[in-house]
Amino acid sequence: MTSREQDAVRLLLLIDGACEPLTAAEKAMPALEQAVGVMRTQVKLQKLDFWLRNPDYLANELLTEYESEREEALLDIAGRILGGGEDTAVPLVAGMAGCSLIAVLALLLTRGGTHLPHSPGSPCDDMDTPASAAI
To answer: Which of 26, 94, 104, 119 has the fewest other C-beta atoms within 10 Å?
Structure first.
């Protein structure tokens, strides 16, 4: 099991690596004036987190993509993941989704690392809420 702080560091790493540039409209929003990127959906963040914690599933996804794209780099990356010879998976924790994701992002928020735009009326377990985190 990982600590909330470890989860926060892992998610910050993912947000930093996968965030997209802000649009002109987003740059004009006062709440995002210091943001350098945005993660548009919680689903994307959850998938990336799952693959980071379970690299064998990422390798399988890359192999599936290779079957349709025939891009050699995908096969090479999957081979390196599967050929590592060590168990690198972080144990799955029941309930590490939905509102738990918000709780971990909230820890980053208290440290000044992220901003969580809120969509009024959206329940916290709505996995398709846009603009889930900005850094």
So the answer is: 94
| Block residue for tokens 């560091």 | 9
117 within 8 A of 134, measured Cβ to Cβ = yes
What DSSP letter does each residue of 57-95 carry, written as one string?
A: HHHHHHHHHHHHH--HHHHHHHHHHHTT-S--PPPP-TT
Q: In b/e form, how buried is each residue of 87-121, taking b as 16+ CB within 10 angstroms?
A: eeebeeeeebeeebbbebbebbeeeebbbebeeee
135 and 37 in contact (C-beta within 8 Å)?
yes
Domain spans, the chain: 4-52+92-134, 55-89
pLDDT at 99: 43
